[in-house]
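Lecture 7, part B: from sequences to assemblies.

Below are the input chains for today's worked example.
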Amino acid sequence: MATTAKSESVKSTGSKKSAVKSTTKATAKATAKAPAKAAPKGGLYDFSKNMEIFSRAVKVVPQGIYGHQSPALTVPGEFPYYAASGKGPRYTDVDGNEFIDYMCAYGPMIVGYANDEVNAAAIEAMQQGDCFNHPSELMVKLAERMVESIPHADWAVFGKNGSDMTTWATMVAREHTDRRKIVMVKGTYHGIHAWCTPGHGGLINADRENMLYFEWNRLDQLEELFRRQGDDIAGVIMTPYHHPAMAGSILPAEGFWKGVQKLCNDNGAVLILDDVRCGWRLSFHGSQDYFGFEPDLSCYCKAIGNGFPISAAVGREELKTSAAKVFLTGSYWNGAMCMNAALKCLEILEREKAVEHMFAMGERLNKGLEELGDKYGYPMKMTGPATMGYLVLDDDPDLYKIQRFCAEVTKRGSFFHPHHNWFLSAAHTAADIDETLGQCEDALKAMG
Amino acid sequence: MIDQSVLARLHLSAVLQNLEEIVVYDDEAGKLVQNWTHTLQFSCPGDIACHIEFGQGKCRVVPGATTMPTIGLWFPSAQSLNNMFTGNGKALPIPWMGVWHIGLLKGFDTLSKRLEFYLQPSEETLKNRDHFKFHVQALLYTSLFGVKEVAENDPKAKPFLKGVRDGILEFRIIDGPAAHVIVKDGKLYPNKGGAINPSCVMELSDIDSAYGLFTGSLDAMALIGSGQMRMTGFIPLADKINAALDRLPLYLN
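Predicted structure of the full complex, as structure tokens:
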């Protein structure tokens, strides 16, 4: 059955070594160059310029802002809409409001906004020329880096978005097995393509005729799917743990992943790990390393290039021939700039022991939040791994409390999303976390 | 593609329910029904029916059939019932009960013209601010009573409600009317007026924004972003219902 992070984590949160005082070089650099503007004292943030730009946007852009950054998914009018600049763990919106950021661009930012090293690597490649008739050697270097650092990776390919890779991976599974069906967990986000988009528009019934669904942690349901249609199941695609929007995260129950892997192996189906969101935030070696299982294919995006647009998929040797048969390309996909940015980003993550640092910062934040919640009569708990927690307030089935709390904190200087898991980065410091907790205390006082 | 049975349900449930307000708001309609103590029923194949109970100068539109209406009109198909509402093609209802109350049918024809006056108002009518507000209220009620029929019966909208949890979505306009939809076991139950403990609230800042939303001249997400529409609470409930609502204009344009 479903379990939360608090009740049944199958693995503890990475290293317990305190990184609270061991500020990394990357973080120190980022903090030193952070904008000088302090969080508001007394007065709350004003978003009038944000709203003004939005009123222009709606005339020329459908919805003004579409997709996951739509204002409708936060609390409109009480959150920023447009960013202006950023450095380290902080960014500034078009009204000049500065935020300590706990969304990290919804995951891509992992070593700090405008990271000097990553930017320098990107610029260096760009100055040599980015997009040619051919890939650069950097593509090979990046593939070698992926193969070297991810245990089940014998090869790597690259794209631009997570959806590029998840969709392609399902095609590789079909090519490899000569079967039609793909299994996924209900309510999981795997991208914007017709087989998986959470949207309603533009779909026809045929889009999902070959999709099968089961509930997270319900190994019995997956067994039943294999029992009934196992000879037509090409692959099972899953995220490392269940992180739906607008609901607490659920970690895998004891034995769940091993069970999934065994079912796939026994039935000749390809196990695809969608590590787009979690990649490099649970383990440097892929999230399967954190939870202890072995997928056949893994998809990455978000954090791999610290925001430079690049995605990747890796796989086992036995899938390489099938992978070669599934056409994969895009106009800019082999550009050198993002490859070099990714190489540098991975170098920093490994060098700075970033995952351990993010866990330490996340645990500090979670502990502080839970203490404040108890103190002010708003009990709350963080679900999911500490590096990318999802906050749940007690007695809040309709989410009114979390919406109010996140809006109050955001207006005081820390960006808290009310409906999506948060993200820590290597650039967050203990001082940042403590400053945020101070804002949280003010917010809770204001909530009365 | 329009499903005629869904359209018939919309005519009977979402359109006719506006008579309840019209006989109160509109003098001509009020005078017409002040002495009516009748029940008028419309039905067609597929268990599609509603009856309207008149009494004490008011009326109540009730989904489903009753056993002893004053007049019962049976249409041989959903299409023919729809023809009566749209004025296109032949309607040819069969009066299976109360055929001698022909005068009442003529009166109902006059009443239906008042319905049309407010549901499809001329630009001139909308210049009257009270009429404008009444029209927006009718749009709100039509939308929420209509979304039930679309969500439960339109083949493309039916999947939207799969797995949706129980709750109450309230739709309100500041200084204006409110309505809410109760979601229970995958079915929708629309109601006029505000809800006591809504799970999700969609609040429009003013009547003009509401008019823009319901007539499609303003984009919902743009209204939300600009603060003209505020959405709080369990947003997935609104998301699912709005997805069904988006299909309503295909039927009731």
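Note for the exam: The first strand of chain B starts at residue 39 and ends at 44. Keep this in mind when comparing with the next example.
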